[in-house]
Design goal:
- 69% of the residues lie in helices and 2% in strands.
- The protein has 236 residues and is mainly α.
- It has one domain.
- Helix 7 packs across helix 10.
- The longest helix is centred in the first third of the chain and has 33 residues.
Length: 236
C-alpha cells in the first residue's frame, strides 16, 4: 500500500486519504489480498530474493578483502576469502540457472522475460528481477512502474530534504539491479547512450544520470510488455 501511495505521488497521511487510497488500490488490483501469486511466480520470487541476498554477501566479502589489502593483512585470510568467494560465486550461478529454467518452463513468463531481455543493457538478471519483483509490469503506467521501483523523484515537504526531490526506497533489490543495468545501457545501448551523453554535457552528476537511465529502462520495459513488442530503437 505504501508503494502504491508513492506511485500516485501521495505523501500526506490522514484517515480520509488512507481510506481513499485503499479504495483506489483495490479498484486497481482487485485480486490483491485474495490469492497468493501462482506457484511459478512464488518460486521465481524466492530464487531471485535468495540471489540478491548472496550478491549482497559477496559485496560485503569483497569490501572486507579490500580492507585487508589496505591493512597489509590479506595474506592471513587469503585461503578463507578465496574459498568463500568461490563458493558464493558458485551458488549465485546455481541460482541463476534455476531462475532461467523456472522461467523457461512457463510459456507466458518466458514470453514476458524475452521482452525486457531484448532491450540492449537489460540482461537476464534485470529481466528476471522485473518478472519477480514487478508482476504488474505491462498493466500499469510508466510513472507507476518507476515509482514502484523507487526510481521516480518524490517531493519532500518536511525534514532535512524539505523542498527537494529524491528517489525513495520501495523495491530496493529491483532498483539495485536496474542501476547495474543502467550502467551497461548508458554505454552500450545507442539510444540510451546518446541520452546519457546529453545529460553529461548538461553537467548532470553521474548518479543522477544513472538514475534517469534506470528509470527509462523500467518505463521502456513496461511499455514494451504492455504492447507485447520487443525492443526497437524507436522505443527509447
Amino acid at each position: 500500500m505504501k508503494a502504491f501511495a508513492q506511485s500516485r505521488g501521495t505523501r500526506a497521511k490522514t484517515d480520509r486519504i488512507d481510506a481513499e487510497l485503499i479504495a483506489r488500490f483495490f479498484a486497481f488490483r482487485p485480486e490483491a489480498g485474495r490469492s497468493l501469486p501462482a506457484e511459478k511466480q512464488r518460486l521465481i520470487i524466492a530464487l531471485t530474493s535468495k540471489r540478491a541476498q548472496l550478491v549482497e554477501m559477496r559485496k560485503r566479502l569483497l569490501a572486507q578483502i579490500r580492507a585487508h589489502q589496505k591493512l597489509g593483512t590479506a595474506a592471513m585470510f587469503e585461503d578463507i576469502d578465496t574459498e568463500l568467494k568461490h563458493r558464493t560465486d558458485s551458488k549465485i550461478k546455481e541460482l541463476e540457472d534455476r531462475i532461467t529454467k523456472a522461467i523457461a518452463s512457463d510459456d507466458r513468463l518466458s514470453e514476458t522475460n524475452g521482452i525486457p531481455r531484448s532491450v540492449p543493457g537489460s540482461g537476464p538478471v534485470a529481466s528476471s528481477m522485473l518478472i519477480a519483483e514487478m508482476p504488474e509490469i505491462g498493466t500499469i503506467t510508466g510513472e507507476e512502474a518507476a515509482a514502484l521501483t523507487g526510481l521516480a523523484p518524490v517531493a519532500h515537504d518536511s525534514g532535512t530534504l524539505r523542498g527537494k526531490r529524491a528517489i525513495a526506497g520501495v523495491r530496493r533489490a529491483l532498483r539495485h539491479v536496474m542501476f547495474q543495468a543502467a550502467l551497461v545501457a548508458a554505454h552500450h545501448n545507442p539510444s540510451l547512450k546518446s541520452f546519457a551523453d546529453r545529460l553529461r554535457k548538461a553537467g548532470k552528476p553521474h548518479k543522477v544520470i544513472i538514475t534517469v537511465v534506470a528509470r527509462k529502462l523500467v518505463t521502456i520495459a513496461n511499455a514494451l510488455c504492455k504492447s507485447r513488442q520487443k525492443w526497437t530503437a524507436a522505443a527509447a
